[in-house]
Each structure stands twice: as C-alpha cells, then as structure tokens.
Amino acid sequence: MLTIGQMARSQGVTTKTLRHYDSIGLFSPCLSRQDNGYRYYRPEQIVTLGRIVWLRQLGMALDEIKTLAASGGLDSVEKMHASLQNHAVQLEADINRRQKTLDHLYRYLAQPERKMPELQKPERVFFAAQRIIGMCWYPEDEGSIAQMWDRFEAREHEIERLYEPVGTFGICQPLEDGQWRYIAGLPVGTDATIPEGLVAMEIPGRYYAKVEHQGEVTTLPETFRAAYSEWLPSAGMQPDEGPEFEYSGARFLGPMNPESVTEIYIPLK
Fold first, then answer.
1. pTM beyond 0.85
2. DSSP line for 97-140
3. How many CB atoms lie under 10 A from the CB of residue 179?
4. What single string gives the DSSP state of each residue in 128-174?
5. Which of 48, 170, 204, 221 has a Cα-to-Cα distance from 115 of 20 to 30 A?
C-alpha cells in the first residue's frame, strides 16, 4: 500500500489534488482509515493516476476525464483514442475562436489613436414621415452591417427612389422583446414596389435630436454613445423608444473619408 504522500510524489502532484480527485469521484484510494483519515493506494493505481495527470496536461477538463474513467476509458486504448480525437477537435475550435479574438485585438492596436467626438449641442428638429425600401440585417446574421451595405449598393438600382432627399438611410429599428434590426435603404414614394428580398418600413414623423458625425463610419458608434451619454442630457433632451437613423446626404464623401459628414437622428420624448 502507498500513502497519499507517496502516491502524490509518484506523479508530481499535491496531496490536495488527490483529495480533490477523491471528493469528485475521479480517483479514490482503495482504503480510507476512518480513525485517522489516512488514505492508502494500491501500487497499480500509479498508472491510472499517471493517465489522469497526462490528460490534464493536454488540457482535458476534469468532467471529461471523469466521464472517460466511468466508461472504463482510462484502461481502453480505443476509448482513450476516441476521447483524445474529440478533445483535439474541441481544442482546434477553441484555438480558432481565440485566433479571431487575437486578430481583432491586433487590428484595434494597429489603428491610430482616435479622438473623442467634440462636444455638440443637439438640434431639436421635426422630421416628416418617410417611407424607406432597403435591405435588413439582424444581430444573429452572418457578416457585418458594412458587408450588408456592400450587398445593398449592388441592388440600389432596383429601387424607385425619390429625387429628394438625395442620400441614403441607415435605420436601427427596435422590435419586440428588445430585439432590433438594421435597415440600409433609400427614400421612396408610397406606391413604390418592393423588390424581391428587400423590405419596406416607415420612419415616423416626429421630433428628433439631430447631431453630426464627421469621419469614417467605423467610428459612428462613438458618436452615438457620446450623444446618448453626454450631449442629450446636457441639452435637457430625453431620448424616446423608436427608430433612430443615420442620413448620408450631399456631405457624405464615402464611408472611409475623414471629411464625410453623417447626420444622426435620435427620437425624442
């Protein structure tokens, strides 16, 4: 018989680890003395513990090892091999997810330092109701809003747009249960037909807080955040539930042009 200290030293683990393995039912001594709490192991259990330690070094979770042990997998070459194959697939998927996160982080670090939007005083304006036909994007959709805009631009010629206003609209429309969708669209008349695969909606006629965003569209969220957190409260304005939208008109010079101006409209109470 081996004591818990001897068993721990045989595989380079701590006695605390062995007690934990015992408490979760993964690796238990063959004998526990109730009078003094001592634990004793058979010499052949060294091999089993070694396999558990090896699997842990490979990053396998204790729950997975416990499931494998319960099925006799620690003593079965076939079951061990199948479990390791499945673990390899999970590791590869995790590596891919982490690589995407790392790539995103590097792209962020490579960007030049961004300036916070300068303080603006929102303008309270009445925007007349406007019918829009466009393409929609939901948060669960694959790809990004920018990629959806690229697809929409290829279909703009299918829409019977109005001559005025001249620009395009990007609308964030709240839905039921807190959900939302984004629509890239053009202004149309009431009788305009809806091309296949596109949608129609109406921007409500009401009062809005109007602010401006200058620069690349990638920094639009920063302007929205500044408007909601600072500019509207400073002006004594309260945002209301309803579609908010971006309008890219004559002063919009392109999505990546630092001189572009995008108008932002936030519904007010």
1. no
2. HHHHHHHHHHHHHHSPPPPPPPP--PEEEEE--EEEEEEEE-TT
3. 11
4. --EEEEEEEE-TTSSS-HHHHHHHHHTTGGGS-B-SSS-SEEEEEEE
5. 170
